Amino acid sequence: MAYQVLARKYRPQRFADVAGQQHVTVTLMNALTQQRIAHGYIFSGHRGIGKTTIARILACALNCHHAIGSAERPTAEPCGTCDSCTEIRSGSAVDVIEIDAATNRGIDEIRELRDAARYRPARDRYKIYILDEAHQITDAAFNALLKTLEEPPDHIVFMMATTQPEDIPQTVRSRCQHFSFHAVKLADILNELRGIASHENVQADDAALSLLAEAGDGSMRDALSIMDQAIASAPVQDGHPVLSATQIRELMGTVPNTVFEKVFEAVNAGSSAEVISTANTLLDAGNSPAQLARQCVRYLRNCLMARIDGLKPEDVTSEGGGSALLQISADEQRRAARTAALFTEEELTRFLQVMLRTFDELGYRQEQRFHFELGLLKLVHLRRLLPVEELLSQLPGSTGGGTAQATSRATSTAAPRATHSTATAQASATSAATPQSRPAFSPFAPQASSRFEERSEVAPSSTRPSLAVASPGPVAVPRSTHPATPAPVMGSSAPALDPVALSPGRAEPVPEPIRIVPPASAQSSVSVQSPAAAAPTPLSAAAAAPAAMAPAASLEPETLQRAVVEALEAANGQKTAAEALEDATWSIEAGELRIQTTVSKSMLPIAINPEAERILKSTLRQHNAATLKLVLLPGTAANANKAPRPVKTGSVQARALEHPVVQQAQKLFQAEIRTIIDLREGD
Q: Residue 200: which of 239, 250, 167 has the closest Cα?
């Protein structure tokens, strides 16, 4: 007789032999005993878990020649000895038709099936149709079968096996009894493999059989197929094949999980060199990066489940115990528990996300090795990140109650201030608070401080100011020369600072914050306010502030306007900006230089581009007007009714108004052209 693979040789012939599907077998046996036979069944679930097998056993039980309760058949199980059971088992029964729906999926085949279903069975009690891969049948073919499924003859039973029940129309599913099969548990697969190994005279230890059971991934047929392959490649001792874990790993192209345990110990230690060295050893040995990434994902999933379940290595024994979430051997559960103890649940979740993304990218990347190594390096770098909650809880003014408390306290507290003989009234107006401890380390502090220092052009060299940002932005930990002065929390309004006298033992003033104020909704440019324009300075409100404001107070808006327009006209490509600012109305109010333009809000960023804004600010600095807060306002309906200024001869406006197309548009629409923007390069 020709050799039969293990999956066919040890195919169950009775309901009791089917592993892991007791909820289905018990229901079917009770229905047989009570004679509650349905005319249609749908068996759905994972591949290789017994859907078609149970359909055949049910067919044997329905057509068995012996009655239930007889001496030959005491239970609902088929007898297995009558002609009907023997023919169905061998696949030669006339009244049991098994159809591959993947190849017979059209409406013509279903019409033939429907016509043949009208005739009674040749010998047995029922004519049974087993449709394997039923989801492949087309919608038109299912529609042709609907009437037969709804009102079938008494002798017809349909059984449909599928891995995708959602592809079967709801009208068909509602006419059948639906049984959802479960994936076979690791323990059930392991017991079956032990029995088959003993029956086949194969020497295999528990580690080797556990690897085969895990490779089955809930499918009994997959596990038996891999076992068949492993027996064929195993060395023979005393006439018996010997299965070992090492040989099975080489056969499947996998590596032991001890390697990944070592990798994550190096990740915990922050050793990038050891992680890359281990990966290099695995890749040089010929292992596929995609397979390694797949194993790493599975190992991380097991570690995450062990962490969630609170599994400890000592909880796992060979007799039992462990976690119900882990369908792996006892040794692997202990290994996963040891790795899970090194990390938090959040860290393991981030690790799993990174490796899942890496595994997906390996499918379409050219240099798979580089991307796998990069994914492992990301795991090391993720350990250096601080949780946002921890960072916010350590901000000044926070008491561990959350960001809301930190924000409210930061707006109401001030640095401790000592009383001075010359500023007693001012110092008594501020409330003292206990200085809060700052975080010992922040990965964002160096970058944040350097970024804000570039934007504060007038910061004094002796004192580094704190920062108060009034608009949402990236989280940064501000630095200050005085640890007792809490920095305002981002998103909160900065408290007003009054003049403060020096403490007797302090040689330098408390630094005041530089406010980076965002523009209003109607404004188009960022307004920068320097320390001199924000509030009176700590040292002397009568000397430093008036000295800074005196030049600006004596300036005339017309003088500044003329200087800026001349600078823009002299620059290359800034004629549009010069004309827009020349037509604007300039005024100085409360330390602000307000420029009311006639350009619309949408066109203002185009007319006053970043280069023009740079020239504008540079010219203001040359005229000692850098302390003024610059505010650009777009045109409104009020200033749109003003009479336009006379057009200069030879200007862009003059040339545009002389163009025949523009003149024709004016006549056609009876329109008045107020603003013209030149978008040409270098003109």
A: 239
